[in-house]
Specification:
The two termini are 50 Å apart. The chain folds into three domains: 32 residues, no CATH class; 46 residues, no CATH class; 97 residues, no CATH class. By secondary structure, the chain is an alpha/beta fold. The chain is elongated and about 90 Å long. Strands 1, 2, 3 and 4 form a four-stranded mixed beta sheet that branches. The chain has eleven helices and four strands; from the N terminus they run αααααααββαββααα.
Length: 202
């Protein structure tokens, strides 16, 4: 029930009739700004104010700020919930926190994120995602990663998007032993961009 509905109900039927048809739009205009704060303080089924219930709150970004997890602009309400749910504020500055933040803007089931450290210099890292899971706006990837990066490190503004990547399971299944793997990929640099044959990735 909106604040306007509660106010009109409290005025009573006789008052509403005498006030005329302009009463409703007047009350709605005066109380509309109060609807969102009122929704935040309404108790949920679990007995908490909605503002503190991640599954029910209409404003997950507020809860994120209150718990130390800033939410970048442009995310849907559900993606905001996902970002707060990762509790990234407990791991801020770690690769795990950066990956968790980026995963909130990806699609698909895998949501693969690679953090490539020391790409241009010791203070720069890069983000790599799969093309099938990348968001339409790649700057969103940088924006959410920036909320978790350590102070002093820089993010490469170009997100690396690959068609698909090789999993460890694929590499060991196809190439067998570590000796065969080392022969096929003499350096880590030659292994990381490896694109397996279609149908062999798992």
């Amino acid at each position: 029930m909106s604040v306007a509905e509660r106010v009109l109900g409290g005025l009573g039927a006789a008052f509403r009739r005498r006030a005329g048809e302009q009463l409703t739009p007047l009350v709605e205009g005066l109380t509309d700004p109060l609807d969102r704060p009122a929704a935040l303080v309404q108790p949920t089924a679990r007995g908490w104010a909605a503002a503190f219930d991640l599954e029910q709150t209409p404003d997950p970004a507020w809860l994120g700020r209150a718990t130390g997890t800033p939410i970048p602009d442009g995310l849907t309400t559900e993606k905001q919930r996902d970002l707060v749910r990762t509790r990234s504020q407990w791991r801020r500055g770690t690769p795990r926190a950066i990956k968790g933040a980026v995963q909130t803007v990806l699609t698909g089931a895998t949501k693969r994120v690679d953090v490539l450290e020391r790409t241009d210099d010791p203070w720069t890292f890069k983000i790599r995602v799969w093309a099938s899971e990348a968001p339409e706006d790649l700057p969103d990837v940088i924006a959410v990663a920036a909320t978790q990066k350590p102070v002093g490190l820089r993010i490469d503004p170009e997100v690396e998007v690959v068609d698909h990547d090789a999993t460890f399971a694929h590499l060991t299944e196809v190439h067998g032993t570590f000796a065969e793997l080392a022969e096929a990929f003499p350096t880590l640099g030659s292994m990381t961009p490896h694109v397996p044959e279609e149908g062999t990735i798992f």
